[in-house]
Amino acid sequence: MEFYVISTILASVFIIPYALKTFFPYLWVDVQYVGVLMRILFKYVANRRRTPPFFALERFLERRAALSEKPFIVFGDEIYTYGETDKESNKIANALLSQPGYKPGFTAALFMGNEPSFLFTWLALAKLGSPVALLNYNIRSKSLLHCFNCCKAKVLIAAAELKEAVEDVLPSLREQGVTVLLMAKTCDTPGIENFSEKVEEALDTPPSLSLRSHVTLKSPAVYIYTSGTTGLPKAALVDQNRLLSALAVISTYGMTSKDVVYVNLPLYHTAGFVVGFFGCIENGSTMVLKRKFSASQFWDDCRKYNVTVVQYIGEVMRYLCCTPKRDNDRDHKVRLAIGNGVRAEVWKEFLGRFGDVQILEFYASTEGNIGFLNYAGKIGAVGRVHFLHQMLFPFLLVKYDTEQDEPMRDADGLCIEASKGETGLLVSKITDIAPFVGYALNEDQTERKKLRNVLKKGDLYFNTGDLMRIDKNNFIYFQDRVGDTFRWKGENVATTEVSDILSMSNCLQEANVYGVQVPGHEGRVGMAAATVKKDAQFDGGKLYEHVVSYLPSYARPRFIRLQSAVEVTGTFKQMKVKLVEQGFDPELIQDPLYVIDDCVRSYVPLTSDIYSSILSGRIKL
Ligand SMILES: *[C@@H]1O[C@H](CO)[C@@H](O)[C@H](O)[C@H]1NC(C)=O
Ligand SMILES: *[C@@H]1O[C@H](CO)[C@@H](O)[C@H](O)[C@H]1NC(C)=O
Ligand SMILES: *[C@@H]1O[C@H](CO)[C@@H](O)[C@H](O)[C@H]1NC(C)=O
């Protein structure tokens, strides 16, 4: 009898785990995920319930209190501890308080590259209860004004090196009564104030808490710009509630106060600002801030600063894998890489070359209401579909018609769910816990991201614009963006925005912009199929000057294809799929083709020679 009991127990001990592993290979992973989700929810709810009210800024103040002497920001040879960072931001806050034209709570726009001042200024404004618009420092003239205006900012704070870009739009800003502050000691342009001196002279005592007593969970915290589906960039409103939920998610990424985090992505994007900046604050880590990503300096920096956590986007990983191999490739302390968009081949290559780094791939968007985390570390996937996740945040993939550029509908006008293994458009139900706040002052664009009548008449979903695939083991993979945006050099390019700009040029009538794939490049390279204005001649030089003055480098179309007419669909949407497939091979395309040439500052005819040089990588795009 005893023998049976013992052997049964032994058998269970050995067989059950084996059976589970065989028949439910991801059971353990899923159990862990439930734990992660519960921790996120618990954390979020606990933070929301705190009194006095708790916002993202309070997390920083907590860390400052506990880790005052600990380095927070390392920037080149400069080091700022948590305490010093706090004082620097107090000085900016106090200087702002004495600034005519500024009042606590006013929305301010920050136009600055990656540097410690960016973070000091954000913290200062948070202490004064001011929402901050994070302007992309690559934008100029019309785009800059548009971005500034779409969040109704009353103050512009700019880095010294961006003075010229500010001067460009100064007349309009002055007309609107905007206060323009330059982070420089001197400035002799009327209408732009030198702000650094004031900051240096200001006291470093904390501004009164009452100055931000108006802030609630619904108050805007930051505006982050996204190149969305159409038109100029849109300001996604990130409210305090959303920052709190981001903090809760980030707290499960496993960063600790011992970690040194390498932040090399722009702070004006969600990846740098939320994941990088708040990721460091959440657990009191040290941030090594880099002005710009550099593939050749990446590992040297990691060695120099003892970096343990790095951030990436797909392009970063690819560029790193493309650098010449070195003997010390594995000589570093990096244990974790957090980011999104790395392709399976690059992921494998990265691990093979740089050693055992945990890659934490996630999927999220600035304004979206759905996210995934590849907690299982499945190569190539962005995450895993889990019933609990789906219960909390109902989402599904629906069949998408890439020709018509819209979701397919059945006879009842409802969307059709994509089957397992099939690519579909990710849509996520808009609910109280998965809200979609939308874009500042842009009802139209906000409406466009909503999808109705998905499963039932009258239901309401957020349209991510991303095509995904779920495999039979429930891992979810990112496939592509739908028609009107593509990614290039880590930035989203809105095709309609580019085509609007092209059709404002002297010689082009209409332009259909899309992205084509080029071997060896992540993302897609911008191309435009355009028609020439009646009685006008195509002028590559003039078009080049026009494009350069209106579009940031990553959004400029590299190729132009001249056509006699732009093809449109039944619903007057431009046809892109066929053009994308046809690419830019001059041997196959009869239409005149041009390629951008930055040396001669013009669009020049695309010859077969140039074509093969691009394919072989001799010409860089
Ligand atoms: C800089 O600002 C201070 C006041 O903050 C002013 O007195 C000074 O003249 C300014 N200098 C220049 C060169 O603009
Ligand atoms: C990060 O900080 C949170 C508290 O904010 C804590 O619950 C969590 O355990 C920390 N994580 C690590 C890995 O230290
Ligand atoms: C990096 O770590 C090494 C060994 O642990 C130490 O000697 C060095 O001072 C550290 N460097 C920095 C910048 O912290």
Automatic annotation (TrEMBL):
EC number: 6.2.1.3
Predominant location: membrane
Record-linked PROSITE patterns: AMP_BINDING
Membrane topology: Multi-pass membrane protein
One term of GO molecular function: long-chain fatty acid transmembrane transporter activity
Keyword annotations of the record: Cell membrane, Fatty acid metabolism, Ligase, Lipid metabolism, Lipid transport, Membrane, Nucleotide-binding, Transmembrane, Transmembrane helix, Transport
GO biological process, one term: long-chain fatty acid import into cell
Compartments reported by the entry: Cell membrane
Domain AMP-dependent synthetase/ligase positions: 66-383
Catalyzed reactions: a very long-chain fatty acid + ATP + CoA = a very long-chain fatty acyl-CoA + AMP + diphosphate; tetracosanoate + ATP + CoA = tetracosanoyl-CoA + AMP + diphosphate; a long-chain fatty acid + ATP + CoA = a long-chain fatty acyl-CoA + AMP + diphosphate
A GO-annotated cellular component: plasma membrane
The keyword Lyase is assigned to this record: no
Record organism: Cyprinodon variegatus (Sheepshead minnow)
Gene3D superfamilies xrefs: 3.30.300.30, N-terminal domain of ligase-like (3.40.50.12780)
Protein name in the entry: long-chain-fatty-acid--CoA ligase
Span of the signal peptide: none
Ranges where the AMP-binding enzyme C-terminal domain occurs: 501-573
Protein family: Belongs to the ATP-dependent AMP-binding enzyme family.
InterPro entries: AMP-bd_C, AMP-bd_C_sf, AMP-binding_CS, AMP-dep_synth/lig_dom, ANL_N_sf
Cross-referenced SUPFAM superfamilies: Acetyl-CoA synthetase-like
Source taxon at top rank: Eukaryota
Top-rank EC class of the record's enzyme: ligase
